[in-house]
Amino acid sequence: MKSVNASIAQHTDDDYSLPVPHLILRTIIGIFLIFPCFISTVAIFEINTAYTSSNDFWPQLFHAEAFLYFSIGSFLMLGWFWTKLFRKTFLYLYVLGHELTHAFFIFVCGGKVSGFKVTPELIEKVKTGIWDPDKNKDDMDHRDALAARGYWQAFQAVKSSIKNIYDGENSGKVVDNDYPTWYQELFAPSVRAGIIKASDLAGFRSGHVIITGSMHSPPSPEAVRDAMPTLFDLLIEEKEPSVRAVLGHFIFVFIHPYTDGNGRMARFLMNTQLISGGYPWTIINVEDRNKYMAALEKASTKNDISDFAKLIARKVNKGMS
Fold first, then answer.
1. If you ran DSSP here, which 8-state letter would residue 111 be given?
2. Residue 172: CB partners within 8 Å, gap ≥ 6?
3. What value does the CA radius of gyration of the chain take, rounded to a whole number of Å?
4. How far apart are CA 22 and CA 79, in angstroms?
5. Chain centre distance of CA 241
6. What are the per-10-residue average pLDDT scores of the chain (321 residues)?
7. What CATH number was assigned to the domain covering residues 203-321?
């Protein structure tokens, strides 16, 4: 709010006494800027072009809520520009919206562009076997972009689950029904690129896994098939959201039902349970990674979850302050 007020404080009424030619010039510049604004709107909102053909994209876009908001905002801003009505209020809303857009983008997307597409060139490179993200920087960037795109797609699915929780459904049941979809979306870009098979995302892992740097040995594939339903039975019955969040996260990574993505899935689960209790979405920052991993290791190998619970509590409290 301070940055918004500072921007408003710099504004003077002299801006509104400009001659008509200057206003026309500003209008032309504003029309030119509509195009990058339009592209940004498509990128930020929920237009998923990765699985939409070019023939379907424009009709789908014109019927999307994002396009409606963009159109309404454009007409309102043009009306404000020429009529000067409620100029202070509109200017405040404009600057506030600008600041919130930056905050929203960084918070939700982690600073990464959600519009990454799997190109035919990438698919061909993977098919020919020359894609090497461990040694080639461009391939490494592609891998990171695939992961970012997958996270964004999974987050859209998680938001749908949260909506159902807000509508009064049992949060444990919602996650039980929806988490396979989260997982599929998390790795869908890699499937599209041919890096992994779609069949790899069906069900739980079929073999044993080793967690690098950990003494914890996850349960056998056979035990996973029994443990996961038990976990969700507990989440459905547990009344306290904070308990569901902390134990749900810990038990999920303890079971380690997938070969990859278990941490991201566990944090999605944790946040749905936190939100069901009115707590904020909570992020484990990179600088907290070592403490986070050490707390999980202690909980997994020494049956002591206290450090992990305290870490999550600190992060939640920080988000509420």
1. T
2. 232, 234, 235, 236, 237, 238, 244, 273
3. 24
4. 17
5. 21
6. 44 52 73 66 50 55 67 69 61 60 49 44 57 62 74 92 96 97 92 81 90 91 96 97 97 96 96 95 91 96 96 93 77
7. 1.10.3290.10
CA distance 307 to 312: 9
Structure tokens at 307: 């450090």
Cα of 105 vs its chain's centroid, Å: 9
pLDDT at 150: 85
For residue 183, give the 3-state DSSP assignment: helix
Task: Match 């490494």 to its residue by tokens.
Answer: 140
Distance CA 270, CA 310 (A): 14
Q: Are 243 and 226 spatial neighbours (Cβ–Cβ below 8 Å)?
A: no
**Residue type (1 letter), 98:** H
Tell me the H-state helices in the chain: 2-9, 20-44, 54-62, 65-83, 87-109, 120-128, 137-166, 171-193, 221-237, 241-255, 262-276, 289-302, 306-320
DSSP string, 12-66: -GGGGG--HHHHHHHHHHHHHHHHHHHHHHHHHTT--GGG--HHHHHHHHHTSHH
Judge residue 209's burial from the number of C-beta atoms within 10 Å of its C-beta, 0-12 exposed, 13-18 middle, 19 or more buried: middle
Quick count: other Cβ atoms within 10 Å of Cβ 22?
11
**Cα-to-chain-centroid distance, residue 58:** 24
**Any idea where the domains of the chain sit in the sequence?**
2-109, 116-202, 203-321
This prediction has a pTM of 0.60
